[in-house]
Amino acid sequence: MMHTTLQNDLDQMATAGLMRTLTDKTGAINFCSNDYLGLAGDPRLSDAAVMAMKQYGFGSRASRLVTGQTQPVELLEQTIAKQKQVDECLVFNSGYSANTGIIPALMSREDIIFSDKLNHASIVDGILLSRAEFKRYPHCDMAALEEALKQSGKHRRRLIVTDKVFSMDGDVAPMATIIDLAKRYDAWVMVDQAHSFGVLEDSDASVDIQMGTLSKAAGCFGAYVCGKSPLRSYLINHARSFIYTTALPAAVTEAARAAVNIIGSSEGVTLRKKVLSNADYVRQQLKQMGFDTLQSTTPIIPVILKDATRAVAASQELYKAGIYVSAIRPPTVPVNTARLRITVTAKHTQAELDMLVNAMRKI
Ligand SMILES: *Cc1c(COP(=O)(O)O)cnc(C)c1O
Predict the structure, then answer these.
(1) Which of 60, 72, 149, 299 is deepest in the core (most CB within 10 A)?
(2) Coil, strand, or helix at residue 234?
(3) Nearest CA to ligand 1 atom 14
(4) Per-residue pLDDT tens digits for 90-137
(5) For 200-214, b where at least 16 C-beta lie within 10 A, e where not — what string?
(6) Which residue owns the Cα nearest ligand 1 atom 7?
(7) Largest alpha-carbon pair distance within the chain?
(8) Is 196 in the pocket of ligand 1 (CB under 6 A)?
(9) Does residue 3 carry a catalytic annotation?
(10) In this predicted structure, what is the pLDDT of residue 355?
(11) How far is the CA of 185 from the centre of ligand 1 (A)?
């Protein structure tokens, strides 16, 4: 019985072109990785991990509050806080668990949260878990955000939360306006830097809560939250996804520390420039062909094809040409905005970029 019910559901998804499957794409040139700076395969990260494993073993044995608190994770938090020039940092096990932990720790039934319509699913889940009043505003629409702030009644706490770089559109949130509105309407601001950390200049020092992941440009795993004291202490005491989970292994945090150090060095600046110029090149070429790339200005370049089936066919066509670009369909993106989502890294060669551009021309 159960299996027929589940199969019927999946059959319907398949008919609508919305079925997802797990497939190994090794071998094709990868244009959908979040490894923006090419650090995931860097031997300095794996060397740091091996050294840590030899010293600490592989597993971390317990949660941070029990026996998972070790020097490597402390050093990682200090390194991130210093680089971001903020008081303090707390590491979480992933971006998903950071967002589903931070938001319910800070906000509850008496509170209200204003969230960009295109915010990442982990933010949405964090808001739902918090049980706070949930106000979505149209994507980057600051007039609508102001109106919502004005209209909202009495609440204990108010929070505006936004992705810095939107993961499916590749555009950047208007942070200056958001910060200004927050001041005027007495709200806190939380920014999710998942796709900006290591890729864009750090410029959110005045934001109350900076959250980001170590799994994208940093090429590792885990996430951080940064802010002014006592944010760290507060989260250690209230964030359930921090409290009730086993700490990251030292191998992971030491590799992450190596990555954060690279990002903060002159090499990081060079890699950042390279990924942005590679992205500019691809975007210009696509625009010249008449493709709609929305307001993308980052290494995330959407190519809107509208129809889900068409997006999947285009992705398959590229795959035959040895290029992997994923098709993104509803519910990840709004209905009728199915797209190819190209991501460019600092390690793509000019020849690879041209291969992509030429294959796109045939679509
Ligand atoms: C990827 C992503 C996350 C989740 O981070 P993980 O470390 O992969 O769990 C959170 N927010 C945004 C905006 C993301 O793109």
Answers:
(1) 299
(2) helix
(3) 194
(4) 999 999 999 999 999 999 999 999 999 999 999 999 999 999 999 999
(5) bebebeebbbbbbbb
(6) 95
(7) 60
(8) no
(9) no
(10) 97
(11) 28
